[in-house]
Amino acid sequence: MNNQKLVIIDTGCANLASVRMAFERLGVAPQVSRKAADIEQADKLILPGVGTAVAAMKNLNERELVPLIRAAKQPLLGFCLGMQMLAEASEETMSADGRLIDCLGIVPGRIRLMEVGDLRLPHMGWNQIEHDETHPLLKGIPSGSYFYFVHSYALEVTEATIASCDYGQPFTAIVGRDNFFGAQFHPERSGAAGARLLQNFLEL
């Protein structure tokens, strides 16, 4: 077993079992926790999430995780909604008044409802990502590789975009700023390419 301490942040809105098993297959025994001491002492952090930005940010605030995540110095990787929570705000609304949901504000950009024309929402299934093959998080993963997506909202392409995907229009597939990274797709459900991305993250 890899002896680095990997903590999966217990956001209360994720399928933690599948994420934990994906790392166990790579020889790492992750700890699931929302305790400040565990998060601060981790070598690497995972921020998972499924569902809505409203529920996810409510959980993070109630569990007093927002300042802990923002202050993290070690590499952190968000999955799916976990990636979206890294952005400045989300257009998913709490009510009909169109009020934006404040997110963590770690990476630039807003989460917007995807404009897909005649394509179906949610964007669900395998799709290709495009990148310049220089970032260590994507080592050994050629541009054009397929990953598994399930989402209706996405982060616009910004200067922090490491890889993009196209579904109706381009959106951010992987984002990175300093020690914070996010993948819109589900690496734990993306076969060999997903496993390689997780291994690359462990090696950062």
From TrEMBL:
It catalyses: 5-[(5-phospho-1-deoxy-D-ribulos-1-ylimino)methylamino]-1-(5-phospho-beta-D-ribosyl)imidazole-4-carboxamide + L-glutamine = D-erythro-1-(imidazol-4-yl)glycerol 3-phosphate + 5-amino-1-(5-phospho-beta-D-ribosyl)imidazole-4-carboxamide + L-glutamate + H(+); L-glutamine + H2O = L-glutamate + NH4(+). It is found in: Cytoplasm. Its EC number is 4.3.2.10, 3.5.1.2. One of its GO terms (molecular function) is lyase activity. SUPFAM superfamilies: Class I glutamine amidotransferase-like. CDD domains: GATase1_IGP_Synthase. Residues 7-202 form the Glutamine amidotransferase domain. Pathway: Amino-acid biosynthesis; L-histidine biosynthesis; L-histidine from 5-phospho-alpha-D-ribose 1-diphosphate: step 5/9. Keywords: Amino-acid biosynthesis, Cytoplasm, Glutamine amidotransferase, Histidine biosynthesis, Hydrolase, Lyase. The active site is at C80, H186, E188. It comes from the Bacteria. IGPS catalyzes the conversion of PRFAR and glutamine to IGP, AICAR and glutamate. The HisH subunit catalyzes the hydrolysis of glutamine to glutamate and ammonia as part of the synthesis of IGP and AICAR. The resulting ammonia molecule is channeled to the active site of HisF. PANTHER family: IMIDAZOLE GLYCEROL PHOSPHATE SYNTHASE SUBUNIT HISH. Heterodimer of HisH and HisF. This is Imidazole glycerol phosphate synthase subunit HisH. It comes from Aeromonas bivalvium. The lineage of its organism: Bacteria, Pseudomonadati, Pseudomonadota, Gammaproteobacteria, Aeromonadales. The gene is hisH.
